[in-house]
Amino acid sequence: MIRNILRTSRWLARKQINIVPVAVRQNSCVLRSARSLNIQVSRQYSSPSDKVDSSDQVDQVVFEDICNETLESLCDYFEEIIDSSPNFKGADVTFSDGVLTVALGPKYGTYVINRQTPNKQIWLSSPVSGPKRYDLVLKDGGYWVYKHDGVPLHRLLQDEISKIVDKVEFKNCAHSLV
C-alpha cells in the first residue's frame, strides 16, 4: 500500500498537481516514509465515530464497577436458574477474578463471560453462538451491546437460555437491556 502511495505521489509530483490531504475522520496519521512527500493518509475504522456513549470514554474505576455489578448479577441469576431447573444435573456456576463460568452440563455446554479491562469490554463464549465482545453503552443506565449486530448481552442470553428453561428473565439483572 505504501509503495502504491509513493508511486502515485511521484507521478502527481511530475505532473505538478497539488496534493490535497484527505480527511475522512479526525483519526488521521502521517506515514513515516511519506513525510518527506507531505502526504497525509486517513485511516477509516469499522465502528461508527458518532457513538459518544461508548465504553472507551468511561473512567476505569466506573467501568470496573459496572462490569462487576453485571457479572455478579449474572452469577446470581444463573445460580437461581440452575437451582430451580431440573434440566441441569451436574451444572455449576463459578465467579472469580472477573471470570464467570456457567457449566450447564454436557448436554448444553459451558458459557464463559469475562471482563476484558484493557479493551473495556465483556467477552462471552457461548456454546450456541460462539465468541462475542460486548461494549458498554451508557444510555438507559448502561448496557452491554455487540457492535457487529447490535444485540445486547442480556438479550442474547435470554434467547439462548429460554430454549432450555421456561420463564427466564434476564431483564432483572444489572445493566441489562432485553
From TrEMBL:
Keywords: Ion transport, Iron, Iron storage, Iron transport, Mitochondrion, Oxidoreductase, Transit peptide, Transport. It is an enzyme of class 1 (oxidoreductase). Pfam families: Frataxin_Cyay. It catalyses: 4 Fe(2+) + O2 + 4 H(+) = 4 Fe(3+) + 2 H2O. Its EC number is 1.16.3.1. Gene3D superfamilies: Frataxin/CyaY. The keyword Transit peptide applies. InterPro entries: Frataxin (IPR017789), Frataxin/CyaY (IPR002908), Frataxin/CyaY_sf (IPR036524), Frataxin_CS (IPR020895). The keyword Magnesium does not apply. It comes from the Eukaryota. It is found in: Mitochondrion. SMART domains: Frataxin_Cyay. Belongs to the frataxin family. NCBIfam families: FeS_CyaY, mito_frataxin. This is ferroxidase. It comes from Loxostege sticticalis (Beet webworm moth).
